[in-house]
Amino acid sequence: MDNNIFKRNELLAQTVIKGLASRNMTGYYAKDKEEALSLALSLIPEGSTCTMGGGMSVHEIGLVKALKEGNYNFIDRDQMEDKRAAMLAAYDADVFLASANAMTNDGVIVNIDGNSNRVSAIAQGPKKVLLIVGMNKICNDVDGALKRARNVAAPTNAQRFGLSTPCASTGACFNCKSPDTICCQFLITRYSRHKDRIHVILVNDTLGY
């Protein structure tokens, strides 16, 4: 990575981390995927029950693989026949893993969901929420974060899942009411009432969508 971009990301991350702290959330900065993985594992005690609600970034830093191979109780929704049971188990998990569709530079987190299992678990339930967020997802304000979530993350995920939505075929949000829409619930996390519950690792890389 260009050294100037690296420095820019490092400085911007410190601003985001201060914003998160002002919102009763904890932020960290990792210079690469390897450091992000090491940091994430340091925040997850061995023996913890962990699960996730999607999030390519969690896979991209190698965290899912490490949890499956390590001394953790990882609830893998993709491997369970009863998907509903797997989703419900998330609410009582020690650690819930996810990413963000977008974040503001002062620490507001924006997520859009189709089934709401991901956004509802971020909002309430699991003892700890750990978000892995690439610096490519940082926006200037909530309006910009919502636009990114709707016009970048949602169309890309709709294409990834092979859904029949206008955004999947055009790459832009049409504010649709398609049966396949994944923009059903919007969660804007501007403050955490419970200190030490929400942790965000900002990664100096392009992760997820």
Largest sheet: 6 strands, parallel
Query: Considering the protein shown, what is the CATH homologous superfamily?
Result: NagB/RpiA/CoA transferase-like
- What's the number of helices? 8
Broad structural category: alpha/beta
Proportion of helical residues: 25-40%
CATH fold label:
Rossmann fold
Q: Assign the CATH architecture.
A: 3-Layer(aba) Sandwich
Low-confidence stretches: none
Order of helices and strands: HEHEHHEHEEEHEEHHEE
Q: Any idea what the shape is?
A: globular
What Rg is obtained from the alpha carbons, in whole angstroms? 16 Å
Task: State the end-to-end CA separation.
Answer: 19 Å
Write the layout of secondary structure elements.
Layout: H1 3-22, E1 26-30, H2 33-42, E2 49-52, H3 56-60, H4 63-69, E3 73-74, H5 83-89, E4 95-98, E5 102-104, E6 109-113, H6 117-123, E7 128-134, E8 138-139, H7 142-160, H8 166-170, E9 185-189, E10 198-203
Parallel strand pairs: 1-10, 2-3, 2-4, 4-7, 5-8, 7-10
Antiparallel strand pairs: 5-6, 6-9
Describe, in plain words, how this protein is organized in 3D.
The protein is α/β, with parallel strands linked by helices and 209 residues long. It has a single domain, classed as NagB/RpiA/CoA transferase-like (Rossmann fold). The chain is built from eight helices and ten strands. The protein has helices spanning 3-22, 33-42, 56-60, 63-69, 83-89, 117-123, 142-160, 166-170, and strands spanning 26-30, 49-52, 73-74, 95-98, 102-104, 109-113, 128-134, 138-139, 185-189, 198-203. The chain has a six-stranded parallel beta sheet, sandwiched between helices. A four-stranded mixed beta sheet has the order 8-5-6-9, with helices on both faces. A hairpin with a 4-residue loop joins strand 5 and strand 6 (109-113). The two termini are 19 Å apart. The model has no long low-confidence stretch (mean pLDDT 94).
